[in-house]
Amino acid sequence: MLDSEALKEERANLVTALNLISGYDDVVSALFELSAEEFDEIALRPGVIAWQRTLRTTVAGRSVFAVDGAPLSADATYLHILMERRANTPTGIRVAEDDHWLRAPFGSAIIFEPDSTSPDAQAVVTEALGIIECWRPELYAEMRQICRAIQFVRDPGASPDKIVSFSDNSVPGALFVSVVQGSGLIDPYDLADSLIHEHRHQKLYLLERVTSMIEETDEKVVSPWREDLRPPSGLLHAVFVFVELRRFWLHVRDQGPSRMKQRAISQLSDTDANLEAAFKILARCPLT
């Protein structure tokens, strides 16, 4: 199960948010009458966490804004959607679900793929997760515990061939990935890379709840993966991600399909060079 402290925190936060609501007694009571397992599953959904954080913050008199600066407010009608969708998925990961609170924190800054993309892309997600499970069953099991949602996004400002992905701690457990590349769908091995990449960020976010890994500092450092200077925590995240991706691409090089061999070799060459530089920089950072 997900770290017990994180689970207890999100369960308590949802209880607090529900107790702040008036005028929705029936649906609030129905949520409280769910089994502990059902209630915990809902409490850990990334959209629910974004919703209850916004509700609690605005009730406390503080404003909440999306990435693009648009104000956010938490509508209690969202509770009806939760009850309608309370059944869990077989993997525990909700793929391309039309959940307003998975998307609201980003406003107009992110474009989400239309529903028409979803059926074919969901098949690629299933294949990508299968690749991860066959390679490292323990990693797949960990992803099922930590990651609760996958959303399909695109960057209109990037080349159509560029693969993009991101995750954000405002919606913990959600992975935002591109599934369209050029005129077709992404290769499942590249999608597996994106899913592992964002999962590692989410895993480190959880660890950062428990303890700080960087002393407080205004210092900015060079990151081999970025053009702009980054805080040391950003560099630590990059290293944590690419150490795992290096393992994955070694597997693809040695045991993957022939079409991916050169891709894996190229990826490993870049990753090895970047990690070598990154570890030297990280060694000079104020780690705890």
Helix content percent band: 40-55%
Helical region count?
11
Gyration radius from CA atoms, angstroms: 20 Å
Briefly note the structural class of the backbone.
alpha/beta
Question: From N to C, what is the helix and strand string?
Answer: HHHHEEHEHEHHEEEEEHHH
| Uncertain parts | none
Shape: globular
The major sheet is characterized as: 5 strands, mixed
Distance between the termini: 27 Å
Question: Residue-averaged pLDDT, rounded?
Answer: 93
Strand fraction equals 5-15%
How many extended strands? Answer: 9
Structural features, described:
By secondary structure, the chain is an alpha/beta fold. The protein contains eleven helices and nine strands. Helix 9 runs antiparallel to helix 10. The longest helix is centred in the C-terminal third of the chain and has 24 residues, at 232-255. It is globular.
